[in-house]
Amino acid sequence: MKLKLIILIACFLVSANIVKAQEKWDLDKCISYAMEHNFDVRKQLLSLESEKINLNTTQMSRLPNLYASLGQNFDFGRAQTANNVIIDNNSQTSTSLGVGTEIPVFQGFKINRQIKSQKLGLDASFEDLQQAKENLSLNITAYYLSVLLNKEVLNVADEQVALSELQVENIQKLVNSGKKSDSELYEAKATLANDKLSAVKAANNYKLSKLDLAQLMNIANANNFDIIDPSDEINNLINTDINLQYLLDSCISTRPAIKAAMFRIAQGHEDIRIQKSNLYPYVGFSASWGTGYYYTFKQDINSPFGEQLNNNMRGLLSLSMSIPIFNRCSTRNNIKLSQIDLQNKEIALEETKLNLVKEIYQAYNNATASKDQYISAKVAVEASKKSLDYAQVKFESGKSTNLEYDEAKSKYITSQLSEIQAKYEYIIRYRIIEFYQTTSY
Predict the structure, then answer these.
(1) What pTM was computed for the model?
(2) pLDDT, position 5
(3) Dihedral over Cα of 404, 405, 411, 417: its sign
(4) Distances in whole angstroms, Cα of residue 193 to Cα of each of 164, 183, 347
(5) Does the pLDDT value for residue 260 go beyond 70?
(6) With contact defined as beta carbons under 8 Å apart, do 402 and 166 qualify?
(7) Cβ atoms within 10 Å, residue 182
């Protein structure tokens, strides 16, 4: 009975591992997982949280602070009592208690402007995060398509091996019947060996591309990692038109890099106002309350503890103003530096816009060219396949040599590889266009 139970449990565990091993990832799942586990994105998220905390600290600086103080002193030798009596060669102890508060009444609107500046900086950092996510998504997409490309290259290599094996069998039959020489058989076997070597290399490239994708996603165990092949996607993309003018009109104001640069320009204006705040007077208000207890050793002049605390209470209200007159031109120079920094940010925005337009044109031209290449490559595959079939018939009828057949086969394999390359080149180019059209990630 126990043996049956152990066998059932073992079967269950094996089947669970098989199901787990058969789990495949689509592109959206790969991107979502990478967003949660990529180190750069996670560090930028923590940096964003730090900026939020700094903003909250600045916002809270408008509120009064409150503090309490407690002190205990021991005096030896000549000392002064609470009644201002000087006593020689005596020791005493004193205890002090107090609370206080400080309130910034007017700082030239500096705190309000710091809050606005930090909010704009936070918005810019958020757009930087979106840009990082976009770049990660593009990288994941490129690596994902690289896996699919290498998988199809492996399929072509396996097909090439199958064709070479079939050719060896056909030549062997012809040799047995005396229609072909042994040299052609050895030639075909050599071709088969080279094709098998190419298949081994293709299989290794396929495994390495899956490992690269898994490492980019920070997957700890990539042994059972595999992806889904969206075989119907290319047919849908081929019939999709790309509107260049729409790309240009929609991207200029919606791209994270543009929005981040615009937020930093607005932040630059606030930074100038922050520096100008130092030209205004500073007004502050403070209040405090305290009391104390004094005890003199070897003297019978000490009042009770509670009586002293009540009698020694004191309060303070203070209103102060600091007027800047001359600080060695430090404030005015800081204003000029902030104005220069603003000009740099405006130049950076123009540069970002120019680079974006350049990238859009390049992406559009690359997508259009790769689409045309794929259509042409697909026609070439169909033509070379017919040529291979015709060469096969000619060879079997003895009207052509093995060299001519290998040449036809090589052209067919080359056209297949060109089609695969063009197909995934177009998919990645179109994906880039899609990212330019997307406003959120």
Answers:
(1) 0.80
(2) 46
(3) negative
(4) 9, 15, 61
(5) yes
(6) no
(7) 9
| Range list of H helices, 312-401 | 330-396
Length of the chain: 441
Cα separation, 171 vs 188, whole angstroms: 8
What's the order of all strands across the beta sheet hosting 65-75?
Answer: 65-75, 92-106, 282-296, 314-322
The letter for the amino acid at 78 is: R
CA triple 283-284-286, angle to 5 deg = 160
Q: Domain limits of the chain?
A: 26-62+107-279+327-437, 70-103+291-323
Nearest Cα neighbor of 34 from 143, 147, 148 is 143
Q: What topology is assigned to 26-62+107-279+327-437 in CATH?
A: Outer membrane efflux proteins (OEP) (1.20.1600)
Written as one string, the DSSP assignment of 251-319 is: HHHHSHHHHHHHHHHHHHHHHHHHHHHTTS-EEEEEEEEEEEEEEETT-S-PPPHHHHHHHT-EEEEEE
| CB-CB neighbours of 86 under 10 Å | 9
How far does Cα 313 stand from its chain's mean position? Answer: 60
Q: Is 316 exposed, middle or buried (0-12, 13-18, 19+ CB in 10 A)?
A: exposed
**How do 282-296 and 79-80 pair as beta strands?**
unpaired
CA-based nearest residue to 133, from 207, 208, 43: 43
Terminal alpha carbon distance of the chain: 56
CB of 97 within 8 A of CB of 291? yes
| pLDDT band, residue 180 (cuts 50/70/90) | confident
- Alpha carbons 94 and 86: distance in angstroms, whole number: 15
Per-residue pLDDT for 424 more than 50? yes
Q: Which of helix, strand or coil describes residue 359?
A: helix
**Which residues make beta-bridge pairs with 101?**
66, 287
CA distance 286 to 126: 39
How many angstroms from the chain centroid is the CA of residue 109?
36
